[in-house]
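Reminder to self: keep the SMILES exactly as supplied, no canonicalising. Ligand is zinc ion.
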Amino acid sequence: METGIRDFIMAHPLFSHHDHHCTFEEFEKQREICTHRSLLGYAGADLTTAAGPRPARYADEDARMEALWPYIRTTGYGRAVMSGCRALFGIEYEPANFARITEALRASVAGRTPAEAYDWFVREKAGVRWVLLDWLFRIEKAEALRVDLYPGYYRFAFRCDDLFAIENAGPIEAIERFTGISALNLDRLVAALNAAIEKFKGTGRLAAFKVGIAYRRDLTVTDPTRHEAERAFERIRNGKAFYSGMQQNGAAVNRRESRALSDYLLRRLIERADDEDIPVQFHTGYLAGHWGSLAGTRASLLIPLFDRYRRVRFDVFHGSWPWMSELGAIAKNYPNVYPDLCWAWAMNPEETERALCEWLDAIPFNKIFAFGADTGFPWCEAGYAVQAREGIARALENKVRKGFFSGATAREVASAIMIGNGERFYGIA
Ligand SMILES: [Zn+2]
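Structure tokens returned for the bound complex:
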């Protein structure tokens, strides 16, 4: 049995295909207020799940943590917190140590500028060489073009879900403000969208378009005529439609009508991606938080887009969990689909390991992306990175154990899915 694979993977650098790290300025504000709870990342959501539909009242947040933490320390979210705390400070994440952990976290940022802290958390502790960030390139953010608020090894995804799940004139006004173009008609709105993209491109650090509309609507993308889109545009622009506060049924009907504008604009975005060979990242599968509708999020709903835009490269997120096998089949069938396990290791490590084993049997390994921490604070990166490496190691050890891969092949595959594929796909290295 080849024994060196795990060590090789645990020490191997990663490409994070997806993160939401705060800016240096936002990070500064955390210095004095971060606590052990700041390490929770996604695990905060499992506390709510554990609490059930009629949660008990607790004296404060710490009392709530002490009561509920024991139930979530076993989940993927919970285990990532423990791995992260161990990797950063060598301390077990448990209630008896919470005060010490707060102290250690504050001490770790105290002596460092934000840039130094990011280097320590992201590069040194998490072993992440590149970060593709979904946070900065948003038209509504005042600092949208400030790439100096991140280290040089960050690249950025442009995200504008508001336009592709449009219900009122707000997103139109926002893009007018951002570009200085008055979107007086549908063509000018498309021109404004392209001008916004141009501004982000001008930074030299635009790497992808990110589409996160699964949080707002289902992933069925219609193909509206220009006339249908114009009609929806006029109604929205004139403020006649789609505001909440309308009668429930009326709002539902109007949302369906507004879909013509959303989908028309989304198709123009993908055409721009086609023209310039800019990758498109899609959220598919499980939604962060609670009560989200899973029904409209499966990657298979995007098949008509994959089929239509055959030269566009799609980075399809989160393994489409819980439809991971299905995404494997899609990625085998559509040469333009690249399945991505960002965030998946945290949501369900066992299932993600199984999916990676399956995918490696079905999909050429140059198409698979194994990692993205998908987290807001850079100090959470290490836990998710350790968790992913452990899963990748188990999956590849499994291939060697079964005699499918030699040790050398397992290492070659690990390198590719952990970093090489991402560097080639995004043209970064
Ligand atoms: Zn995300």
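Points to follow up:
The chain has one domain: 4-23+114-426.
Strands lie at 14-19, 128-133, 154-159, 206-211, 280-282, 314-316, 337-339.
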